[in-house]
Amino acid sequence: MDYSCHLSVSVFMLFAFFSFFPINAVARGGDRIPSQPGLLLSAMNHSKDYSTRHLFGVKEHPLMEEIIRGYMSNFELEKSMKEFGKRCANISYVYSIGESVQGFPLWVIEISDKPGQKEPEPSFKYIGNVHGDEPIGRELLMRLANWLCDNYMKDPLANLIVEKVHLHILPSMNPDGFALRKRGNANNIDLNRDFPDQFFPINDVESLRQPETRAIMNWLQREHFTASASLHGGALVANYPWDGSEDKRNKYYACPDDAAFQYMSTVYSRSHHNMSLSKEFPGGITNGAFWYPIYGGMQDWNYIHGGCFEITLEISDIKWPKAIELHALWEHNKKSMLNLVASLVKAGVHGRVFSGETGFPLPAYVTVEEINYTVRAGSIYGDYHRILAPKGSYKVIASMPGYQTKSTQIQMNDEGVNLDFILTPEESNNKKSKPKGCDCNCERSDQTELFPFFKTIPIELFLIVLFILLFLCYLFKRRTIFKFSRHNRQFIGAKRAAVV
């Protein structure tokens, strides 16, 4: 009897406790649910069932387990990347650009026919998992790498990318956020709001930036990227700069290369299974500030400070889709991902800049008239790669301190244009003039004494030798210049080659 009494009292107290605290239990548990449309609402609609399981500590929410199952963990991703590096060693190089807050390496795969080497070719980077609760980029980027490895020497598009582009793939910029199932990193900072901003003083102090942000910024200082894209989830659209506006209003705020960014975004959208059919975004593309302004974003910083044309790709309406949907999402995005990289070669203007005096490459500045944006040629090969929208006429200008500026007009159609520049040194303004009062006969009386053997050489022989030496110098100079410029004419799609 005493036992039954105690049992009844215990059950009553336990029932009263659960009846008093159910809402708080759901709120705490909700912090562990990935931020995706409909999931939190689903948990709230079944709050009694979910809170009871959570409080008893039996297991996680079943929908959460179903979503996570099938995605690679951070350690599985690391293992997969290293195995890829071994399997595809002939066209890949795996390296780290830094570490996350919790010390996890930020691994990158470089894919090229000469991985790890510098070449006068455009470089492209893909970045996934910027937000921890948007992991689809991790999976699709690894599928992209494996597709290129499996189809190299079999598929023309794979050959083009491997042989004419240096592709760098960072599957996860935010491994800590992925492990914690939340948007921000381990310090709960949104990494796509953590870059220095052009309108507002966000993170102007380097020591305040997150380690993942600093890793990306240092990466761009080491690599000469032409273009880039980051993969996100939660919508279906290709987004391009500017991402914000001076007055923080939702309005179209175009950057100097607005036409080129629209072209890049359209390349992705039209190649996608259904992105271009969007009813919310005409053509499946949008200006960032027009959609909704953000500040401290990565794509604006890339364009302003890195010389890199970056767009943001929202590739899934759901932030964290079930793993069973990954294959279909890969098929929907595969062609777009490949075509965007290939567009670096198939479009725009490419070339190299040389010194007309020495024949050596110059890290010159290349601009386009009426577009207030400058790209810098590489310091090793003097190569530049300028994205331009097709169907237009452009005046391309190359300049370098100490050299005469040169320009030429090009017509962009549906193929790339190859254009080299040979810059002539400026004449020195400090040339020594003859001293005033100098006698017309300025020969030194001791010249013949310094070189007495000149008296014994016939003038005809001396002129012949001098002519031969000058001719050899001319041939050597010509060979050096055209040896440097020959590589650029091998770009697929660059049918028109010119040197000015």
Quick gist of this model?
With 500 residues, the protein is α/β, with parallel strands linked by helices.
Account of the protein in words:
- By secondary structure, the chain is of the alpha/beta class.
- Helices cover 38% and strands 19% of the residues.
- It has 16 helices and 16 strands.
- It has helices at 2-20, 22-30, 39-45, 47-56, 62-68, 74-87, 136-151, 156-164, 175-180, 211-222, 258-271, 288-291, 298-305, 326-346, 447-450, 459-486, and strands at 92-99, 105-111, 123-127, 166-170, 227-232, 235-240, 285-287, 309-316, 349-355, 365-368, 371-376, 383-386, 392-399, 406-412, 417-423, 496-499.
- The strands form 3 sheets. It has an 8-stranded mixed beta sheet, with helices on both faces. A 4-stranded mixed beta sheet has the order 12-9-15-16, covered by helices on one side.
- A hairpin with a 5-residue loop joins β1 (92-99) and β2 (105-111).
- The longest helix has 28 residues, at 459-486.
- The termini are far apart.
Could you list some keywords that capture this structure?
single chain; 500 residues; alpha/beta; eight-stranded mixed β-sheet; four-stranded mixed β-sheet; 16 helices; 38% helix; globular; disordered N terminus
**How much helix, percentage-wise, in residues?**
25-40%
Number of strands: 16
- Strand coverage percent: 15-25%
Query: Major sheet, described briefly?
Result: 8 strands, mixed
Spatial order of the strands forming the largest sheet: 1-2-4-3-5-8-6-7
Distance from N terminus to C terminus (CA atoms, Å) equals: 105 Å
Structural class category: alpha/beta
Radius of gyration from the alpha-carbon trace, in angstroms: 31 Å
Overall body shape? globular
Q: In DSSP terms, counting alpha (H) and pi (I) runs of 4 or more, how many helices?
A: 16
Low-confidence stretches: 1-63, 429-455, 487-496
- Chain-averaged pLDDT: 82
